[in-house]
Design a protein that fits this description.
Length: 459
């Protein structure tokens, strides 16, 4: 009798242990496929579910949407308020989509909805309109009523042979078209967009082949202290050397790029190629305070800086010769991660500079808490009294915080004069110097050294 009781208890304990393990595994599986903030599917879960659907059915629609000007909420109210908005939006989306549909949050303020055809008799555009109407309803955050809009791209089946990633990409293309046409819109992916996407994909493959072939090379644009005329630095820039030997501009290169990994590949490639040039120039006697700027592309994520090719390339440059330029919009999706990496870079001796703060007034409030050495303004924004006033605010903030101040895009004498009036003497732009080859930069450095010798500044 007792033996039977002991066996029963043991079996019960074993079953309880197995049940606990199963429950724990289910929780882990759920975390792996669902967004912790909204409870919706995450990117991995969406791809898994969508891939499964493509094997069972071919006629469904994918809606890709994001929130208009969501960044201003994060900047003005803080990320906790932004997270609360995302939770409300996720809940509203889940409430209004048809049965047997699924909703996912891909990250940031981007959401995807998949609607099977048999649940979409009202049509994907009507579903998108329902979602937009639900999102735009006021949201109360910390006693304030917020109203936020959305833009949506739709990719409608039937699908034959397209992968889950491709279908999401089609919807994303339509989303970008909607946003470029004025936000708050709904656009549908068309054959014209497909042909354009195919062309861009082919162009990007050509660009990646050019990187591998060594046709993307570093050029340099000098930076001057206009108060004393000294050459104090240079930005490393990418140029694509064509078959005829002529360089294509950075703007031309960017028109080819959709994939952020291509941006990372270009940046790391030109930095790697610049390393022996920098070492040679240093050996020839660069001034002690001369620094090379590396601009981190806006679409490269903080993870890419930390783990990818860019971080590896940057380790090849003496950090005391390095300034990292980060555009303020690059911090949007993962500000804490970005700031940790900036602190790590700064601890090595590299300078950290935040670009274009004047273009985002709501970003000004976060500047005092960031690990920065410098603020950078774009002189091309000096087009109106309001824009000029914002640049003056940035200059005052830099002065009050003890940060350096520099300007890019200096193209006219009016730019130079306005910047001089606000105390911004570190300037870069075509007014002062064009983009140079490595040999051209070496000649400019020699010319600058001769000027300083003639002025008695160096022996």
């Amino acid at each position: 009798m007792l033996i039977g009781l002991f066996i029963g208890v043991a079996c019960l304990g074993a079953l309880t242990g197995v049940g606990s393990i199963v429950a724990r595994q289910r929780r882990l599986d759920h975390r792996a496929t669902h967004d912790s903030l909204t409870g919706l599917w995450n990117r991995a879960g969406l791809l898994e579910q969508l891939s499964d659907r493509t094997t069972r059915e071919h006629d469904f629609s994918v809606l890709y949407l994001d929130l208009d000007r969501f960044k201003s909420i994060n900047d003005s109210l803080g990320h906790a308020a932004g997270d609360e908005v995302l939770q409300v939006v996720g809940h509203r989306i889940a409430e209004v989509i048809p049965d047997d549909s699924l909703a996912a949050r891909l990250g940031g303020d981007e959401f995807v909805v998949v609607c099977p055809a048999h649940e979409s008799s009202i049509g994907p555009r009507r579903i998108a309109e329902r979602i937009a109407a639900a999102i735009v309803e006021p949201i109360e955050i910390n006693g304030r009523l917020l109203r936020i809009g959305s833009s949506t791209g739709i990719a409608a089946g039937p699908w034959n042979g397209s992968s889950a990633t491709e279908i999401i990409g089609y919807a994303n293309v339509a989303l970008h078209r909607a946003k470029s046409n004025g936000r708050g819109r709904i656009d549908v992916f068309t054959n014209e967009m497909r042909n354009e996407l195919d062309r861009r994909t082919a162009d990007e493959q050509t660009l990646r082949a050019a990187i591998d072939a060594g046709d993307i090379v570093p050029f340099f644009q000098p930076e001057y202290d206009v108060e004393n005329g000294r050459l104090i630095g240079a930005e490393i820039l990418a140029r694509w050397i064509g078959p005829d030997g002529s360089p294509r501009s950075a703007a031309t290169i960017l028109t080819f790029i959709d994939d952020p990994s291509t941006l990372e590949k270009i940046t790391s490639s030109v930095v790697t190629q610049a390393i022996p040039i920098i070492r040679r120039l240093t050996a020839l006697g660069l001034p002690a305070d001369f620094r090379f700027r590396v601009n981190i592309p806006q679409r490269c994520t903080p993870r890419a800086w930390r783990d990818g090719q860019i971080a590896s390339a940057l380790r090849g440059i003496d950090p005391n010769r390095l300034t990292i330029d980060l555009h303020e919009s690059s911090r949007v999706d993962d500000p804490e991660g970005a700031d940790r990496i900036l602190r790590t870079l700064r601890d090595t001796g590299a300078r950290v500079c935040l670009e274009d703060v004047a273009g985002s007034p709501t970003a000004l409030g976060s500047v005092p808490d960031l690990p920065l050495d410098e603020l950078r303004v774009d002189a091309r924004r000096l087009t109106s009294p309001t824009a000029t006033a914002m640049v003056r605010v940035v200059a005052g903030l830099a002065r009050d915080l003890g940060l350096g101040l520099s300007a890019t895009g200096v193209e006219t004498s009016a730019h130079e004069q306005l910047l001089g009036e606000i105390g911004c003497h570190r300037q870069q732009g075509f007014l002062h110097a064009s983009v140079l080859t490595a040999h051209g930069l070496e000649e400019e450095l020699m010319h600058d050294a001769l000027k300083r010798v003639s002025a008695g500044l160096i022996a």
